[in-house]
Design brief:
- With 485 residues, the chain is an alpha+beta fold.
- The protein has 2 domains: 68-279 and 349-430, no CATH class; 281-345, no CATH class.
- The protein has 16 helices and 15 strands.
- The strands form 5 sheets. Strands 3-4-5-7-8-15 form a 6-stranded mixed β-sheet.
- It is elongated.
- Mean pLDDT is 82; it is low at 1-24 and 27-62.
Length: 485
């Protein structure tokens, strides 16, 4: 804020002013600290949802509908403790209530759905926190590619939960086994009681609708074999964030993101590992069984399901094929193809991890003990998935049909710009008018100072400077109104 400080010192030297230059800067800093819990590192960037149409004149009118909010510097430093960027974001996110991810989603939705307080009765700290949360989250999800978006989301989540929560980007942080990479992306300090917290490891996946969750088989096996204290727990939570999309009106597939994020969360342990990672497919088993026809039928070739596609529906009692189109009278004794049971088959992604014999061996060892400890779990090191020489190792996968089960659903958040703009307008009207004017005046002043020193052409510099002076006058006036001595 050095440029702002120097400009204000030059413009406010009047002895009879209500607020002296030094006092004005102190008050502005107190407003930023106390009302927003924000120690600003830059006064350069502010935004509103309707910024594409808003002009300086409109912001100076009585028709201002949205309070200007600081654009927080999005940074990976949020994922690390004890640094200025983390402290700023953590102080803002402290107002997003709820001890768990599901509770925080519910809290955000209550803010979006609730009726805004009457004019002048809104809580500036709470309102700014929720609006900045939504601004920042929408930017992370919408403005970056998939890999960068996922990485920034990890840091954002660490700041949201605060305390000792960290983003994991180095194997040494969690004592990962040599030759293995950490599968946890963050360790979150989750409140487990009124005062107690527990460190919970999370792996985060931001996917398109119907996306598949992938991971390294070797790394996840090593995770459950690793006795390191830094790992904190013998389970791993997978948080799946789906960028929802509506079906296209014509053709197949889905359209672009509709602004909704759906959250799913499931836990993998040594006990349920084989149910989720490389579980066999249960398929129907068919066979020909004797039957007396109760009505006249015609021989045909079956097309569905795939297991019996192309097979004849009927055979004679001695197993001879019956020509397609043959009419079979009521009372005819035949062999009819029917489902006689099911069986587990190692296929698809599971076939990359285990051979049928290996899977049988592992399940047998797991079933023979009451507790699947590390020694028992080590049987998975003898599978082909663990020893795969493929680049990155063999990959396990979990399809959307598994993780979208009702038991794993944690809620959704609508980040549609139209929705967010409407709620920002509603909540702005609930704030004290002088508070809104103060933040908007500070934003305008910041804009024009930067234009004066950086962006303005020589012929426009004087006009921009005059606007900055007017902004400073407005800021002084609004501070005197909003901040009482």
């Amino acid at each position: 804020m050095s440029n702002l400080r120097e400009l204000l010192k030059e413009e406010y030297k009047k002895k009879d002013s209500i607020v002296t230059p030094k006092a004005l800067m102190t008050i502005v800093e107190e407003v930023m600290d106390n009302l927003m819990h924000l120690k600003a590192t830059s006064a350069a960037a502010y935004q509103v949802f309707n910024e594409e149409a808003e002009t300086q004149g409109e912001r100076d009118s009585d028709d201002v509908t949205v309070i200007r909010r600081p654009v927080i510097k999005i940074t990976e430093l949020w994922g690390k403790t004890e640094n200025g960027d983390r402290e700023i974001m953590e102080s803002l996110m402290r107002n997003i209530t709820g001890p768990t991810i599901e509770a925080k989603i519910e809290s955000v939705n209550k803010f979006l759905e609730a009726q805004a307080p009457p004019p002048g009765e809104g809580d500036i700290s709470r309102i700014m926190s929720y609006l900045i949360f939504l601004d920042t989250f929408a930017s992370i999800i919408n403005d970056y590619g998939a890999s960068v978006s996922g990485f920034l989301f990890e840091a954002f989540l660490a700041a949201l939960f605060g305390g000792t929560s960290i983003q994991v980007d180095d194997p040494e942080q969690v004592g990962a086994r040599p030759g293995s990479l950490p599968i946890e992306d963050v360790q979150l300090a989750i409140q487990s009681g009124e005062e107690a917290t527990e460190i919970v490891p999370y792996s985060l996946k931001v996917l398109r609708k119907n996306g598949v969750v992938h991971g390294s088989f070797k790394n996840i096996v090593d995770y459950f074999l690793d006795p390191s204290e830094e790992r904190k727990t013998d389970s791993i939570v997978y948080l799946i964030v789906i960028k929802d999309a509506d079906k296209k009106e014509k053709g197949s597939g889905f359209g672009s993101w509709n602004g909704k994020l759906k959250f799913y969360e499931f836990v993998i342990t040594r006990e349920n590992f084989l149910e989720l990672i490389g579980a066999p497919k249960t398929v129907p088993v068919y066979d020909y069984q004797p039957q007396t026809l109760k009505q006249q039928l015609t021989q045909r070739i079956l097309n569905q399901p795939a297991a019996i596609k192309g097979m004849p529906h009927f055979k004679t009692m001695d197993g001879t094929d019956i020509e397609v189109g043959t009419s079979l009278p009521k009372g005819t004794e035949v062999l009819r193809l029917v489902q006689v049971g099911t069986e587990d088959v190692i296929k698809g992604s599971a076939a990359k991890l285990y051979s049928p014999e290996q899977y049988k061996t592992v399940t047998g060892k797991f079933a023979d003990v009451p507790d699947i400890d590390r020694q028992v779990f080590a049987a998975l090191k003898d599978t082909k998935g663990y020893g795969s020489k493929a680049a990155g190792g063999a990959q396990w996968s979990i399809g959307h049909g598994v993780y979208t089960a009702n038991e794993y659903y944690k809620g959704e958040i609508d980040l549609d710009p139209v929705v967010l703009k409407a709620r920002a307008e509603d909540y702005t009207q609930s704030l004290n008018a002088s508070i809104v004017a103060l933040f908007n005046a500070l934003g305008d002043l910041s804009d024009n100072i930067n234009k004066y020193f950086i962006g303005a052409k020589d012929q426009n510099r004087k006009a921009v400077g005059q606007l900055a002076k007017q902004n400073a006058e407005s800021l002084k006036r609004e501070v005197n109104i909003a901040v009482k001595t």
